[in-house]
Amino acid sequence: MPDRFTGKVAIVTGSSSGIGQSIAIRLASEGAAVVIDYHSHPEGANETKAKVEAFGSKAITVQADVSSLADTQNLVDQAYIQLGGCDILVNNAGVEKNAPFLEVTEKDYDMVLDTNLKGAFFLTQAFVKRLVALQKPGRVINISSVHEDMVFPNFASYCAAKGGMRMLMRDLAMELGPVGITVNNVAPGAINTPINTALLADKPKLNALLNNIPLGRLGSTDDVSALVAFLASDEAGYITGSTYVVDGGLMRNYKEQ
């Protein structure tokens, strides 16, 4: 595999498990040094770090709550202090809360919006400020969701956050294009990750979902990280302002039961 990211540094939020872990490992496998961000699972972050280092790439772990501006600023600062800079930002950290709209609490709404949207907004700002000061180009890749466009009953706050991420990406692509920074979203559908453990164990529910996916399977984290690696590479230098859906055709075929 070509070392497309030799000499590059990437921040991947929420990279102690699942999609974020897969992205960190994929970028490292092609030469990137990686800032592994975690919120509450240091053991997962250390596992990611070991896998990154197995490729001969440098890695650091940084605990950060992305909804905290001080924490997001520290993520960027640590990339420069410990790894010498930062070229790629992957906004992957996210949470969801299952509740009927009439039962959503302010606390749960704030948790979802602050993590999924506010965090990406201000971490991107901190990342870009350093690049602009240095007159360097960069890549911003947001891990959004098919639910930036597709309804998800009982997850209104999550849909609002991801819909906001879609418009944020489009706006920043226009604002940051003139300084050589591209901004794109990757929108996964149903991916085989720890967050879907209950779904995988519920065969009737799983089969109903698979019947809505033309390719007939859940996606893997590698399906997502491969696309992220492409968008982070020089090969995607003329791509900005778009969402790339990784869902096996789910969005085009989905029907509420």
What does this protein structure show overall?
The chain is of the alpha/beta class and 257 residues long. It has one domain (9-192, 220-246): Rossmann fold (3-Layer(aba) Sandwich). It has helices at residues 18-29, 42-53, 69-83, 106-134, 156-176, 197-201, 203-210, 221-232, 250-253; strands spanning 9-12, 33-38, 59-63, 88-91, 138-143, 181-188, 243-246. It has a 7-stranded parallel beta sheet, sandwiched between helices. β4 (88-91), α4 (106-134) and β5 form a beta-alpha-beta unit. α3 (69-83) packs parallel to α4. The chain is globular, with a radius of gyration of 18 Å. The model has no long low-confidence stretch (mean pLDDT 96).
Helix-strand layout with pairing:
Layout: E1 9-12, H1 18-29, E2 33-38, H2 42-53, E3 59-63, H3 69-83, E4 88-91, H4 106-134, E5 138-143, H5 156-176, E6 181-188, H6 197-201, H7 203-210, H8 221-232, E7 243-246, H9 250-253
Parallel strand pairs: 1-2, 1-4, 2-3, 4-5, 5-6, 6-7
Helix pairs in contact: 1-2, 1-8, 3-4, 4-5
* Major sheet strand order: 3-2-1-4-5-6-7
- Put simply, the count of helices is 9
Q: Between the first and last Cα atoms, what is the distance in angstroms?
A: 43 Å
Whole-number count of domains: 1
What attributes characterize this protein structure?
257 residues; alpha/beta; Rossmann fold; seven-stranded parallel beta sheet; 9 helices
Briefly characterize the structure.
The protein is α/β, with parallel strands linked by helices and 257 residues long. The chain has helices at 18-29, 42-53, 69-83, 106-134, 156-176, 197-201, 203-210, 221-232, 250-253, and strands at 9-12, 33-38, 59-63, 88-91, 138-143, 181-188, 243-246. It has a single domain (9-192, 220-246), classed as Rossmann fold.
